[in-house]
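To close the chapter, one final illustration. This time we ask the reader to focus less on the individual chains and more on the assembly as a whole: which components sit near each other, and how the overall shape emerges from the parts.
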Amino acid sequence: MSDNAIEVRSLCKTFKIDYNKSVSHTAEELNDKRYSSDKIEVLNDISFDVKKGEMFGIVGRNGIGKTTLLRIIAGIYKPDSGTVKVDGSLIPLLSLGTGFDIELDAKDNIIMYGKILGFSDKEIQQKILEILRFAELEKFANVKLKKFSTGMVMRLAFTTAMQIDPDIILVDEILGVGDVAFQKKSYDAFMSFRQKKKTIVYVSQDVNSINTLCNRAMLLNKGRIESIGSPSKVVNDYLGIFEKPKESIK
Amino acid sequence: MVHETISQIWKRRSLIRTFAINDLVIRYKSSGLGVVWSLLEPLLMFGVLYVIFTNVFKSTVENYPLYLLLGIIMWSFFSRATTMGIGSIIGRAGIIKQIYFPREILPISSCVTALVMMGIEFGVFFAFVVVFQFLPPISILILPGLLFLLFCLSVGISLFLSVLNVKFRDIQSVWGVVMYAGFFISPVIYSLDTFPEELRRFLLINPVAQILEMAHNSVLYGTLPSLSSVAYTVGVTFGILILGYFTFRHYQFKMVEEL
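The assembled structure is written out below.
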């Protein structure tokens, strides 16, 4: 375990779905064996490790189970079978909003987030200013989040997670909405995070960032790991999926 | 195991406090009168019921204004705590789906929010006590214990129904009706003393009616509750609390997927 930040073994997860009976399945769904009448096998016997200090990319088509996998690693969902071991403190940054309450202002949200993660009042108070400064949101400390733009919420979420300084961070397609200046800033933050021997699991559709940022990557397809290894190879395999002629639809 | 659970929840008390404070902030910050509403609500209700029940129905209950106000405050607490508690999981679906923390904190903190509001209202009650120059009997000392029971009962019901409410959202609609009916079949505006014994016993199956009855008797009339009604109420309360806790535990992961 000492070298690995995350160990996933034979993980399976099935979701029940209530199909509206009047809606028929698409041809692709009917051909996809993961779909049966009322459930879908999202993850089927997934095993992999993420090493400490690694930035590990995950790619795959929409709805293939990337976020589900992150939720299981974060302890939000329980797997049907298989195990996940996590060594160190972990913060998930899943999609937008990341658990903020839009009726509260930026400051109260930072406090709540810190408390959820188990920090004391004192520790959080020390960090509030720093977080607001890095996110360039000092002027908006007392503004309710519902008045924030999507990009601003994302900046606040990302910065809060980074400043709380966990051992592992799970990032799910949240950086795309930041402006160019903030993207540069967040990439720098990732790099210094990695230098501290900390671990990032990074889910993105942006294959360029997978290529440049990650040192290892994994492609999920139809419930299984289709390829794992160097980012350039994985990204190639991923792009290959889209080029394959879809016999099934004929 | 019970000890472990309590110590775990106790460790996260500062998170419970944060959620409860946030609930209060959201509730009052965007309303003009703010916290004053917490005082006006029961007072307005008291005013209306008092006029009706002293003039139209000629209530003969001794110290009726205090009797009525005490009942309204305690009933409002129970009704608010359970209503907010039942909606607490759905209300924070965003956070629950994004990050892990012990989820039982949400219904508990809703009940704490209601507890704080009841605390403010008791300030009004004791102002009434002074205005009416009423000297409470020594048996008033059991009131904190009774409020603790009512709190535990509210937490138990909130735990039990909040998790089921995710799948069956009818629960929160039905609960509104239950609370409305409950108000009229509990000794809030009237006393059970004049009721036929059988009806009285039937109405006292309800643990909230038991707690209200004990509160009225101990705070206003200097009568301590009988051992059997204490045993019954404590038993039912902790039975519901344990049932609620295990139901919550059992369904907590399934519930997240339903959100």
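Residues 96-165 of chain A form a domain with the Helicase, Ruva Protein; domain 3 fold (CATH 1.10.8). The radius of gyration of chain A is 19 Å. With these observations in hand, you are ready for the problems at the end of the chapter.
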